[in-house]
Amino acid sequence: MSIKELSDIPKILVELFSRWGIDIKIENAQRCVDCVLIFIVFLLLFKYGKKIFNWVKSIFHYGDKKYADKYIYNALFYDFPDYLATKGGRNKIFIETQFTDMPPNNMIDLSDSPTSSMREPMSTFWFGRILKDYNANKRLYMVFGGTGMGKTTFMVNLLCQYVRRNVKNKSLPYEIVLLRLSDENIMTEIKDINNKTKTILLLDALDESRAATEDFECFKKELEDVIRDFRFVIISCRTQFFENDDSFPRQTNWLLSSTKNFIEYNRIFISPFTVEEAYRYIDIKYKDPQKRKKAKAIFEQCKDLMSRPLLISYIGDLIKEDWNFHCSVDIYAVLIDKWIEREVAYLKDKSNEQKESLYIFSIGIALKIYDNWKNESRMFINADEFDELKSINKIQQEHPYQYKSRSLLNRNTN
């Protein structure tokens, strides 16, 4: 519609009302048109204002955005390429990670844990309180989570959000580096990082380090020697990597000059999804109402297992086939098959024999846990029972760390 056509609207209104026997002045008609136009403008601003503001803002910060994109790409390309935000990439759907200072694995029903302790979102915990200049002493953190709780996803998104939030004039207050502790040359890689006092170091998957599993105390000492100069260090690890609560690392060998005390490890735990967070994930993932409905029905059948971000991400495997799940056992069966495929992919030997070995070993553990629950009212196995099961099932001892860190087991504080 042209400007001339808009200016003719008051005249058209006067003629229209005159046909109905209503006499209005041209000035009043113009005021009505002005009010309608103002209402439309406000309506559009209300609906699209945030997008318009972000678009205008992006024009002024285009250089910073381009710098951040390149920084993130370079940081993830080598070790974490599947997390890059490409079309259909894994980090397209990210429900903000929640943290707690209480191990959620102590709950028999994992879906109960979000309501049993205080939770704090990643944005306020890390960006609001931790990664700050005034946080001088608490600079070493261990982030624990059970199998499939989204530890690597958290580390990747922590890096991405830190860069996007803090880039200014194509620079960052601190550099940020993400490495895998499973790398055989990790100590050399850490040593080679420049300007350590102005760098945040993220170390993913302590439980996947062979050296840490074979002799943790030796590994811990060597690691502390090479990371002591970094501004902040955040290490992720599966909770079940440590046999009990007493075996968690407590303090470093770094002496704080102001108090003559040793700097301690700060432990935090990733909290499982709440029902609302799981539904939000499903709503984002599926636009098709039928798929969304089926996914939520599956979640309701198996809330405990689906509270884990990794396993709810497998929900596509459950709905894409024409399966009818009569009970949660059917859901578990499919997820276990997918889990075995994922875990065996880490091994050099990816044969069917390895899959069968891991499957039989897992069955043995499940039966032992059931016997313990039936006879002693405890739903866990201890380290001695674990070693006995390995011996009974003729699990090779060459690389025992594979069975310790890669498990469906959920370690509690016993």
Short description:
The chain has 414 residues and is α/β, with parallel strands linked by helices. The chain is built from 19 helices and nine strands. The model is unreliable at 86-91, 107-111, 397-402 and 409-414 (pLDDT under 50).
Topology:
Elements: H1 3-7, H2 9-19, H3 26-60, H4 62-77, E1 98-100, H5 113-116, E2 120-121, H6 122-130, E3 140-145, H7 151-166, E4 175-180, H8 186-191, E5 199-204, H9 210-214, H10 216-227, E6 232-238, E7 251-256, E8 261-264, E9 266-270, H11 275-285, H12 289-301, H13 303-306, H14 309-313, H15 315-319, H16 328-344, H17 352-376, H18 383-392, H19 401-405
Parallel strand pairs: 3-6, 3-9, 4-5, 5-6
Antiparallel strand pairs: 1-2, 1-9, 7-8
Helix pairs in contact: 2-3, 4-7, 11-12, 17-18
Question: How would you portray this structure in words?
Answer:
With 414 residues, the protein is of the alpha/beta class. It has 19 helices and nine strands. The strands form two sheets. It has a seven-stranded mixed sheet. Strands 7-8 form a two-stranded antiparallel ribbon. A hairpin with a 4-residue loop joins strand 7 and strand 8. The longest helix is centred in the first third of the chain and has 35 residues.
Cα gyration radius (Å): 28 Å
Widest beta sheet: strand line-up = 2-1-9-3-6-5-4
Stretches where pLDDT is under 50 for at least 5 consecutive residues are 86-91, 107-111, 397-402, 409-414
Q: Which class do the helix and strand fractions yield?
A: alpha/beta
> What's the end-to-end separation, in Å?
73 Å
Multimeric state of these chains? single chain
> What overall form do the CA principal axes indicate?
extended
Proportion of β residues?
5-15%
Tell how many strands the DSSP assignment holds: 9
In helices, the fraction of residues equals: 40-55%
Written as H for each helix and E for each strand, in order along the chain, the element string is HHHHEHEHEHEHEHHEEEEHHHHHHHHH
